[in-house]
Specification:
Layout (H helix, E strand, L loop, with lengths): L1 H31 L9 H11 L5 E4 L2 E4 L6 H13 L4 H29 L4 H13 L1 H5 L7 H18 L5 H17 L7 H19 L4 H34 L9 H8 L9 E2 L2 H8 L5 H12 L3 E2 H5 L13 H18 L1 H16 L11 H20 L4 H20 L11 H31 L19 H5 L9
Antiparallel strand pairs: 1-2, 3-4
C-alpha cells in the first residue's frame, strides 16, 4: 500500500513538474514576442526557405549565395517542415516551431531529473530539485522564443549523460545503440557540442568495465577488450548518423568538411582588431533604446527588440564595405580558412590583446555578455549571477562527490575552454547549463537535508502533547523499597 502511494506521489510530481515547465515556456512565447514582428530566424530561416524553393541547403554566406555548410542541418531542416506546413516564413510557422521548442525544453527538464537519479539513486530529492531549477530557470524559459540550436543542444547533451549514467546500472544493446544515436544527433545539431563526447564515452567505458568485472570476473585484458568493442560500436553508430551529411559536404565542396565549414570564420569574428570577443560590436544607442520604455513588460521587450537591431556585427564593419571582393573565386571552406588564417596572424602578432579577449570571453560566458542587448535585462543579469554563484559554491561543496560528477564537470569545462579561446555568445552556455545544475544541487543537498531534519524535529517537539493535570500520572517504577520487595524479603541492607 505504501508503495502504491509512493508511486502515486511520484506521478503527481512528474505531472506538476512537466506542466509547470511547459506552461512557463508557452507563456514566454506568447508574451515576449512582439505581435507586430516575428523572431529573427537568422540563417536557419533562409536555408529553410531555399529548401522549400528547390534551391537545396543554401544561403548567402560571405557575399556568395549557394550550397552551404555554414550551419548544421538539424534546425534548418526542422524549420523547413513547419514552413511547409504553415507557410514559408510565416508567423504561424515560427510560432508553431517555438511551441515545439517549449516541448523540447520540457523534455530537457525530464532528462535532467533522470540524470540526477542515475547519478544519485539513493537521494531522489536531488533529482526533483534539479528538475524544478531547470523548469523555472529564466534563460531556459526565454530560449524557447529564439530560433536557435541551443534548446536542442541542451536536450541532446542532458539526455546523452543521463543514458550514460543509467548504463552503469543496467547495460543493454538497445541502451548502447540509443547512446550512439543521441551522440550522432548531437553532432548534427551543433558539432561544437561534440566536445562533450570524450568525457561521456570515457565515463561509459569506465562504467562498463566496472560492471563487467563485478559480474563476469574475467581477466582484465579480456574485459578491457570487450568494453573497447562496445564503446567503438557506440562511436560507429555516431559515425553512421553523421556520414551522409559529411558525404554531402564532400560532394558540394570537393573536400572533407566535418558538419560545418565556419570554424575559421567564427575564429576571425572573435579575434580581430575591432573584436570584443564576440560577433557583435555594441553601439551607444543600444543602452539608450533599452532604457526608453514605460516600465511594462511589453514595452521593455519592445525596447530590447529594437536594441537588438542597433547592434553592429563584425561583418558589417570589416567585410561588407569591400563587397567581399577578396573571396572571389574561393569555395566556402577556402573563404573560412582565409579568415581563420587572418585571425591566427593577428593572435600571433598581438598575444597580449588575445589574452585580454580570452579573459573577457570567459567573463561573458560565465556571467554576462555585455555586447548582447539581451544582457541589459535585469532578470537575465540576476539569473546569470545567481547561477554562477550557486554553481561555483555547489561544485566546491560537492568535492566528496567529484568521483561521480567528473564527467559533467569535464564536459562543461571543455565547452567553456573552447569558447574562451575562440568566440562566445550568450546562447553558447545554455546546452551545458543543465549539467551544472546537477552539481549545484548535489553540493547543497547535505546542508539542506540537515536543515530539513532539524526543522522536522523542532516541529515534532513543538506539537507533542504535554501531560495535563486531568491526565493520570504515569505509574512509578517499583524500586527495591516497594511493598512487594519487602514481602519477598529482598529488602537491601542499609549502608553503614
Amino acid at each position: 500500500m505504501d508503495l502504491l502511494r509512493r508511486d502515486d506521489r511520484r506521478q503527481w510530481g512528474w505531472m506538476a513538474l512537466a506542466v509547470t515547465a511547459l506552461c512557463l515556456r508557452i507563456a514566454a512565447v506568447l508574451i515576449l514576442v512582439p505581435p507586430e514582428g516575428r523572431p529573427s530566424t537568422y540563417e536557419h530561416g533562409a536555408i529553410a526557405e531555399n529548401l522549400l524553393a528547390g534551391r537545396g541547403f543554401s544561403v548567402t554566406y560571405l557575399g556568395t549565395e549557394g550550397p552551404t555548410s555554414q550551419q548544421a542541418p538539424w534546425v534548418p531542416a526542422v524549420l523547413a517542415v513547419f514552413y511547409w506546413a504553415f507557410g514559408s516564413g510565416s508567423r504561424d510557422a515560427i510560432v508553431a516551431y517555438q511551441l515545439l521548442q517549449c516541448i523540447v525544453g520540457t523534455a530537457t527538464v525530464v532528462a535532467a531529473v533522470r540524470l540526477s537519479w542515475a547519478l544519485f539513486p539513493a537521494t531522489r530529492g536531488i533529482g526533483w530539485a534539479v528538475g524544478w531549477a531547470a523548469a523555472i530557470y529564466p534563460p531556459h524559459i526565454y530560449m524557447a522564443t529564439h530560433v536557435q540550436a541551443a534548446p536542442w543542444g541542451a536536450l541532446a547533451v542532458t539526455l546523452l549523460f543521463a543514458l550514460v549514467a543509467e548504463a552503469a546500472q543496467k547495460i543493454s544493446r538497445s541502451r548502447l545503440l540509443t547512446i550512439g544515436c543521441v551522440g550522432g544527433w548531437l553532432l548534427l545539431i551543433d558539432p561544437i557540442l561534440g566536445l562533450v563526447l570524450p568525457p561521456a564515452l570515457l565515463a561509459l567505458a569506465i562504467a562498463l568495465y566496472r560492471r563487467q568485472r563485478t559480474t563476469n570476473h574475467e581477466p582484465r585484458a579480456r574485459t578491457a577488450l570487450q568494453v573497447g568493442l562496445r564503446v567503438a560500436g557506440v562511436g560507429a553508430c555516431m559515425l553512421a548518423i553523421t556520414t551522409p551529411w559529411i558525404a554531402r559536404n564532400f560532394h558540394i565542396h570537393g573536400e572533407f568538411v566535418f558538419i560545418k565549414s565556419s570554424f575559421g570564420y567564427a575564429l576571425w569574428q572573435g579575434n580581430n582588431p575591432l573584436s570584443h570577443g564576440t560577433d557583435k560590436i555594441p553601439k551607444p544607442s543600444v543602452a539608450t533604446l533599452a532604457a526608453e520604455h514605460d516600465g511594462s513588460l511589453r514595452s521593455r521587450n519592445q525596447a530590447l527588440w529594437e536594441a537588438r537591431h542597433e547592434t553592429l556585427y563584425i561583418d558589417d564593419v570589416l567585410l561588407k564595405p569591400t563587397g567581399y571582393q577578396e573571396f572571389a573565386g574561393l569555395t566556402e571552406p577556402e573563404r573560412s580558412r582565409l579568415l581563420g588564417s587572418r585571425a591566427g596572424d593577428w593572435i600571433r602578432a598581438h598575444p597580449a590583446d588575445y589574452a585580454r579577449l580570452c579573459f573577457q570571453r570567459l567573463s561573458y560566458f560565465l556571467l554576462i555578455d555585455r555586447t548582447n542587448p539581451k544582457a541589459t535585462n535585469g532578470i537575465y543579469q540576476a539569473s546569470s549571477i545567481i547561477w554562477f554563484t550557486l554553481s561555483a559554491m555547489g561544485l566546491l561543496a560537492a568535492r566528496r562527490r567529484w568521483s561521480t560528477l567528473w564527467p559533467l564537470v569535464a564536459a562543461f569545462l571543455s565547452v567553456t575552454l573552447f569558447h574562451t579561446l575562440t568566440i562566445t555568445s550568450a546562447r553558447f552556455r545554455i546546452p551545458v547549463e543543465p549539467l551544472s545544475l546537477v552539481w549545484a544541487v548535489a553540493g547543497f543537498e547535505p546542508a539542506a537535508t540537515h536543515l530539513g531534519t532539524r526543522i522536522a524535529r523542532a516541529w515534532r517537539e513543538a506539537h507533542v502533547e504535554e501531560p495535563t493535570s486531568s491526565q493520570e500520572p504515569r505509574a512509578k517504577l517499583k524500586g527495591p523499597h516497594s511493598r512487594r520487595a519487602k514481602v519477598a524479603g529482598r529488602v537491601p541492607a542499609r549502608r553503614r
